[in-house]
């Protein structure tokens, strides 16, 4: 893995340290998350965030464990860092940080107070909602260490305030149970019970959202560290509260060993490869329905479009083919009227995309091609034929094959069915009604995939061959535009849309793409769209271009696909360039340099269209990681 570590010049600077975030996940959709400096800048930052029945229905539990050191002189030193509604930063424990490291995927801090050095390590238990916190004396002493447990129990997207009842805290022999939802255990528990009012989250304020909450100081753990090597260990867990996890030190060791096994299974070619392989692990989760994919942390759940777009990078590039097989079979079971279900972050199931099903065809094809799993191909082939038949007959939201040219058309009032699906006050920003270029590239690719899967298994391809021939001819004849690149949408309400966007890259990058790469078009795309983190979603000289993905929810959504950079699209760009015979060895330098900059050891959801292309959106995004990993390797 690439080394990621920072000294006091970053750790003690809240601008630098508090904008670099770490993440630990539990394999269920829950997580722990925070910043290098220790400042909680988001409502989502906590040591124990617990997933519900679906990954998106998360609750924040243990907010923090604030270390307070009592020196041999009797002087107390607070090592936590908080920001308050008044604007005050108090305490300022970040000023005593001499080092932060992300070691083997686990965050570690070291504070220095004269000759006293205290280390903190965190790890989660994979497969259950549990966090282990280990504080260790490295030098100096003896000292007394208290750990103040700040607690809540609330929806991860909300807040809790002191004008309501405090969390119910029931003492146990070695800690407490909070709201019958999670348990704390460690040495020297002393209950307190006090609201800490007005905790401020600067990132939520910057995003135009509620930015303050009140936190319940439930009590404190404590112990004496007499000599270097002594520890104070605390556990917090949800689920079966009587099933205590292993001791915290063992949890840390087990997590480190598991991370190296995850990396080894991916057979990485270099340290960046290893880093991305471990980053990918965060997004693969197991629910009661089987394996699934979290689209991004900290606020997304599972979305079928993201899952299928990410499939090859998250599963096939990381040695998870068996898990992937299970996932594909489960998703196939959600097909209805030829459409793949899209599990919304509310936990409900919706059928509201025109492209997720096309990505599903691609994912099945790649799985069978890479693994040779003809049994899966034979099992799913009837469902894939039904997808074609349903699109020929017409399905929801006007999604259907146009009999005039064999291409897919789509659109309905108020709907945004492609991946460019942002809305402002319910109105789609980029509705793209008609025949989007990437949807039809995926359609042609998917039809060819069905034909290949049928040939591999001796099965019936159904209508795919005849539909493919018609759609391929029409794609080649109709999408090239006078500007020298491809139309973004054909036959829309306003005619053909020639906006320069990265969507057309799929017409050249897919394994069964409808077109051979066009060097002139690729040069135009590279010149107008490429940034260090990948292509912009719209050329800067286009009407409606917005170069800053900042501000209120409405402002951010208006910019979401109107110039904002999407790192996942670097994958199709790399494939298209590679198919054109171009060298791509330098293409990923910006992504590689980004790994220690924002979401540590991961790739962000988005970035500003304007230089310096500061990262935005989720700091940890599944398809951004997946496509960088896949495209670098294959």
Automatic annotation (TrEMBL):
Domain Glycogen debranching enzyme bacterial and archaeal type N-terminal: 20-226
InterPro entries in alphabetical order: 6-hairpin_glycosidase_sf (IPR008928), 6hp_glycosidase-like_sf (IPR012341), AGL/Gdb1 (IPR010401), GDE_C (IPR032790), Glycogen_debranch_N (IPR024742)
Positions of the Glycogen debranching enzyme C-terminal domain: 279-630
PANTHER family cross-referenced by the UniProt entry: GLYCOGEN DEBRANCHING ENZYME
Protein name: Amylo-alpha-1,6-glucosidase
Native source organism of the sequence: Phytohabitans maris
